[in-house]
Amino acid sequence: FMGAGSEIEEGSRLEPRFDASGTIPCITVDAETGEVLMVAYMNREALDQTIRTGLATYYSRSRKKLWVKGEESGFVQHVREVRVDCDQDCILIRVSVEGGASCHVGYRSCFYRRLKPGSSSELEFVYPEKVFDPRKVYRPSS
Amino acid sequence: FMGAGSEIEEGSRLEPRFDASGTIPCITVDAETGEVLMVAYMNREALDQTIRTGLATYYSRSRKKLWVKGEESGFVQHVREVRVDCDQDCILIRVSVEGGASCHVGYRSCFYRRLKPGSSSELEFVYPEKVFDPRKVYRPSS
User: Fold this and answer.
1) Would you say A30 is a known binding-site residue?
2) Residues from chain B contacting residue A4 (CB–CB below 8 Å)
3) Which end of chain B is more exposed for a tag (fewer CB within 10 A), N or C?
4) Which residues in chain A have their CB less than 8 angstroms from residue B90's CB?
5) With contact defined as beta carbons under 8 Å apart, do A26 and A58 qualify?
6) Residues A38, A102: contact at Cβ < 8 Å?
7) Could you say which DSSP state residue B52 is in?
């Protein structure tokens, strides 16, 4: 049987298993409601900084640098709890979000669309409206 | 500004962006409570089969094959909703779980441990007990 009783799964020590590129996925949920807000990636430094500062800090795989969530938009995520999954290859953090939005498109959550019932390709929007207008929040990248 | 108003982010068509290895991460949450249960991966075939059959089907990157959740344990996941995130590189499904457990270790959720407050490495267990005993549910692999 796969790994039952192993230290990774049953132990009390955080030993995150970063992938070949040195990152681990992180699911970010609302500390109050448990709603999934976003998924991003952390490297060792981002995870350490998140734990040390209490501010959600990710690693941008495209820009190849650390990224303190909200540093530009102001929608900072205060970390209330850090969890890890059974085989320690995924992190979950529970956060309180300043301003109440975590998606750069303007919605509370990045998961603002769902498949229409009965369709295999057509999406419908979940939230009645955006929390903010990204054109007013983000500076032009000129 | 990155991609605001793009078809991927604002459109109504599911266009999942599988990674270089042909997979996409999937967050699985309880349809009733929204609690995160597990994270696994899907390839195109697993996603199509999940949508077509209504039973959560993943792709095992280690065993390199499709995997209908619960096919061995009986803890089948009935899919109530399929969501996608803003840049369509992550799937989220809302499921009802037969038997009430989604982690092979025996807990309701794979995220059964959290960092102890104030510690950067010591974990504590979240749930008072397991839902099932994996030694009684899984057959020996011999």
Assistant:
1) no
2) 104-105, 134-135
3) C
4) 39, 110
5) yes
6) yes
7) H
A142 part of a folded domain: no
Q: How many folded domains does chain B comprise?
A: 1
B50-102 confidence digits (pLDDT tens): 999 999 999 999 999 999 999 989 999 999 999 999 999 999 999 999 998 99
The ipTM value here is 0.92
Instruction: Give the pTM.
Output: 0.93
A7 CB burial (10 A radius; 0-12, 13-18, 19+): exposed
Judged by DSSP in three states, A138 sits in coil
B60: domain CATH number is 3.10.20.810
**Both structure tokens of B26:** 């999937």
CA triple B43-B44-B48, angle to 5 deg: 120
CA distance A121 to A102: 25
Report the chain A residue with the minimal C-alpha distance to residue B92.
Answer: A111
For A70, the domain range is 17-137
